[in-house]
Amino acid sequence: MFEDFISIHDLSVYEFSQIMDMTENIKARPQRYRSKLKDKVLAMIFQKPSLRTRMTFEVGMLQLGGEAVYLSPSDIQMGKRENPYDVGKNMERWVDGIMIRTFAHQEVIDLAGAAKVPVINALTDLLHPCQAMADFFTLKEKHKNLTSLKLAYVGDGNNVCHSLLFAAAKAGCQISVATPSGFEPDPEIVKQAEEDATETGAGFFLTNDPSQAVEGADAVYTDVWASMGQEEQEKERAKIFASFQVNRELMAKAKPDALFMHCLPAHRGEEVTDEVIDSPQSVVFDQAENRLHVQKIIMLLLMEKKQK
Ligand code: CP
Ligand code: NVA
């Protein structure tokens, strides 16, 4: 059983599908879980901004009978005012779990290595595992059978793309990724996901051609072209990524009923048009809702027991 939730790569195929099944249950019967984390406290460390992640972790803890403490980017100033090891050694004395959103992925690994309490990765520059779990739960709700599914990701080979690759590998589905040249997913992540895929029969296809990636897809996913921390590259990236916009023409190359997915926040008119994100095929708010349900299960699995 996993002791922290840092990467979907660390989950077994069984654990991945267990989280999917348990999420279905908690979403249908939330009242059964309302005191499961009574008297437990989650610390939420944010080194970057957030709407969905903050709301869903905080509301999730409240719905489970526990509490959450929010620490803004100006509080800890991890790596500047205090290192991850010392933060972990302090935190473990006060709380039952730590959620962290930061820049360097290594900080999450160091924090988890130091703290006796479970650590949950709520986004780093490398990964966004809670998002991909909610996304695959959404796909399962809509499609039932993940193994027969083809997901197309169009845009930057970023944290969200990396976690989708890992989730696809555990789910056993087909995923195609179209990025501009030079913005492909990290080869080390692709290699690890391919290793995971040998167990499930998942398939990967990387291309620089969005049309090729979305051809026959059941779902088309995109994310912002410049992630948090890359704001100064926004203008330059807008030019490079212009032909990767998910618009009506591109969606027409996927299956007629293909879903549109986005982790949000979206830059409407850039990576996706209003017409697509507001269409009946768009499930972006289902994805956002499902962050709550899936993270409640992740917190339960990690925090119900005492310590690591
Ligand atoms: N999708 C997501 O993580 O949203 P926030 O950045 O608002 O938390
Ligand atoms: N790739 C985006 C995801 C935001 C939820 C970012 O890191 O800013």
Please give a quick description of this structure.
The protein is α/β, with parallel strands linked by helices. The chain contains twelve helices and nine strands. The chain has a five-stranded parallel β-sheet.
Q: How many structural domains?
A: 2
* Tally of individual helices: 12
Helix residue percentage? 40-55%
CATH topology of the largest domain: Rossmann fold
Strand order of the largest sheet: 7-6-5-8-9
The CATH superfamily of the largest domain turns out to be Aspartate/ornithine carbamoyltransferase
State Rg. Answer: 19 Å
The fraction of residues assigned to DSSP E strands is: 5-15%
How many strands?
A: 9
Q: What's the level 1 CATH class of the largest domain?
A: Alpha Beta
Q: Ends: how far apart? A: 10 Å
How would you summarize the topology of this molecule?
Blueprint: H1 13-28, E1 41-46, H2 52-63, E2 67-71, H3 84-91, E3 97-101, H4 105-114, E4 119-121, H5 129-143, E5 150-154, H6 159-171, E6 174-178, H7 187-200, E7 203-207, H8 210-214, E8 219-222, H9 234-241, H10 248-251, E9 259-262, H11 274-277, H12 284-303
Parallel strand pairs: 1-2, 1-3, 3-4, 5-6, 5-8, 6-7, 8-9
Helix pairs in contact: 1-5, 1-12, 2-12, 3-4, 5-6, 5-12, 6-7
Bound molecules: phosphoric acid mono(formamide)ester and norvaline (NVA).
Tell me what you see in this structure.
There is one protein chain. 42% of the residues lie in helices and 14% in strands. It is an alpha/beta fold. It has 2 domains: 8-128 and 290-303, 3-Layer(aba) Sandwich (Rossmann fold), CATH 3.40.50; 131-288, Aspartate/ornithine carbamoyltransferase (Rossmann fold, 3-Layer(aba) Sandwich), CATH 3.40.50. The strands form 2 sheets. It has a 5-stranded parallel beta sheet with strand order 7-6-5-8-9. Strand 6, helix 7 and strand 7 (203-207) form a beta-alpha-beta unit. The termini are close together. It binds phosphoric acid mono(formamide)ester (CP) and norvaline (NVA). Phosphoric acid mono(formamide)ester binds next to helix 2. Phosphoric acid mono(formamide)ester is lined by residues 50-53, 123, 131, 263-265.
